[in-house]
Structure formats: C-alpha cells, structure tokens
Amino acid sequence: MSAVFEPIIGRYFTLTLGGRPNRIFFEEAGQGIPLVCLHTAGADSRQYRHLMTDEAITEHFRVIAFDMPWHGKSTPPPGWQDEDYLLTSAAYTEAVMAFCDAVTADAPVVMGCSMGGRLVLELAAAHGDRLRAVVGLEAADSQQPWYDTDWLNRPDIHGGEICAALVSGLVAPQSPAEPRWETLWSYMQSGPGVFRGDLHFYRQDSDYRQRVKAIDTDRCPVYLLTGEYDFSCTPQDTQRTAENIPGAEAVTMTALGHFPMSENPDHFRGYILPVLEKILGQPLS
Amino acid sequence: MTSVDDVDPHKQIRLIPDRVNANPRLCHRGRFFTSDIMIEIGDTPYYLRINNGRIDDLSEGPVLMRPWAFAIRAGESAWTAFWQAMPAPGYHDIFAMTKFGAASIDGDFHPLMANLRYVKDLLATARAPEAGR
Questions:
Q1: I need a surface site. Which of A80, A82, A214, B8 has the fewest CB within 10 A?
Q2: For the whole model, what pTM was predicted?
C-alpha cells in the first residue's frame, strides 16, 4: 500500500500571552497571501485541513491554522491545573494578533468560524489597518443561546460525548458521513471544560452589536458566509450583522451547517473560492 | 421521494422500537441507559420504556399517573417536518426546534444529556423512508 503525503507542514513555537509562555502548534500549506484560519469553540486547527490540500487555494494563499492555547496540540499555560479556562475577548484578540505578527510578514486575511467568526469582527474594528480582509464563517455580532453550558463540564456526564452530541445537530443533514464524523471527533477530543471556556467568550464577552459599526470595509473588507442549517448562528443573525457594516458581503450557504469547511468541504468550496478570488483580485486557476 | 404529506408522525413514532432494537450499534450506545421517556405529538403522549439501550415498550397515552424522566414535546406539523428524510433547516435537530419554539423539553435533563447521542439517534430512526442516519 502506497503512502500518500499531504502538503501540510506543522510546527511549534512559544508565544507569550497574558504574560505567560504558551507552546503553540500551527500547520500550513501554500504560498502567497497569508490566510490565517481560526477554529471553532472546543475544536482545533484540523478543521481547515481541506483548504490546505486544495491547490486552487494554496497556489495563491499561504493557508495557516493554529490551535488556540488549551486546544489541539497547543498546551495550556503553566499553572492551568489550578484554574478554569475562560476565554475573553481581550485574550482571544491578543492571541490571534500575536500569532499573526509572529508568523506572517504581510497583512493577513483572517478567516474564523463560529467564535472565530465572531472575533474577526472585532479584529476588523480594532486592527483593520493591519489586515487584508476578514472572512467570518457562521459569524454574527451576537446570538441567542440555546443550551446551558454547565452541562459541558461535570463529572457525571462524559465531556467528549456531550460536546459532540450537542453540536451534531449543527451539521447539515446533507453533509457526508466521513467529514461529519471527523468534525465531531475533534469535539470528542477537546480537554475538559475547554468548549465551555470558549463559550464564555462567545456568550458573555463578545456582544459586538455596537462594535461592528466601527468597521471600515474600505480598509478591511468583510465577507460573511453562513450555512442555512446553522441554528446557533443563524443566517438571519449574519444578515442582521451585515446590515450594520456598510460594504460587508453576506451569503447564506445552502446544505451547510455550523462547520462548513470541515463538515462538507467539497460543497463549501463553491462558496469560499469566489470570496478568495475577490480578495486576490483575480480568478483562482 | 417521500413528501411532507406522506409522513404521519403518529405512524413514524411506531417505527422506533423495531428500528432501534434491530440496530446493535445503537443498542450498544445506550447500554447504560434505562429510563421511561415521553414523546408528545400534538396532544398525544407516547411513552417509551428503554432498558439498557433496547426499547421494551412503546405505548400511546394519555395514561393516568404514568411517570417519565423527561419529555420532548412538539406539534404534529413539527414532528412531521422533523421526520422527513431530509428535514428542512430548523427541523433537523431537537435543539433547533426548541430554540425556534417548535418543541419543548422538560423533566430531568440529566439522563437526556448523559445519553444525548443515543436519544438523538433513537429519534432519527423514525425518519422516512429509511432508518435514521
């Protein structure tokens, strides 16, 4: 049986965040415009692996995805064993901008999904002059909660099972079994309390309904793509957000849910390639 | 292609016991789950007796003083939409339906959350026309 290698290369480095060293893992493929990808809450950078093996993209973009501290192959900071992980808007912004400064020389495009999609709105507002564009997948300036996050981290319920079982309903029914279950697998692998800690940012510390009005899309274009089956961040949430950002483009994607890049990468291609072509200013070959 | 008109939720729910019990993986997933739960379709309660992942009984109510751990309630049109082979957005998951007001869940949430994948898969077995995905 022959081995089939992928072009994705991963490595580690240490980044000081919040005054503490954090060993960060990231992976990348391609050359050109840096495209920094932010994973969803309670997951990791593997969600973007399909973009990194798409030659139409990697011919023009350096696709980079990193695991946030506590996630994937990035370790929690020293002392984590005696604290609860609770992500804040300030800490998330610090981590992403520090990562971009450390790893990219040119102004990057930042693409985030779910909580990452939420954050790119803040990045566009606060750091738009340092970014080429932002892409928000399943992104909105705020949203209505649909469950109590305390169920995600308690000793009498399996954390991996409940995280995956909850978000399973956010995957579109059309998404094929293999990428659907790979998407859920990463939720099953998340550390205890990490998904819940991310949702602290998402629920309690990122109401950007006023903040998005500071975005200047002439300096930092904003593209928003949301799947029709996403009932967490609904297409209506995204459309409402876009209406408060003059110049923002919002598209509702059919037959996709909350994890478009990983739950059905082939179908998502039809939506993300036109966005990347606009950012590039030419067709992708 | 099954259309909305072909799905009668009062018939679909009766498919659940045989389809669950014929699915060894699903029964295995529920091997630690023993409980009585209630599914309400419109005004009609249905009681499911689950025994270590197998379904011992489905009975139509109301039955006076019949206890249950938790209840999932929705109208006939919502269950009809939910049990389509390819449900429309908003009707593809019980929490989508609760968020948008088409369904409600009450009772003891612990057995539901501890066995959530099993319960979701159990409900999905009634999707038309084939067994749940």
A1: A82
A2: 0.96
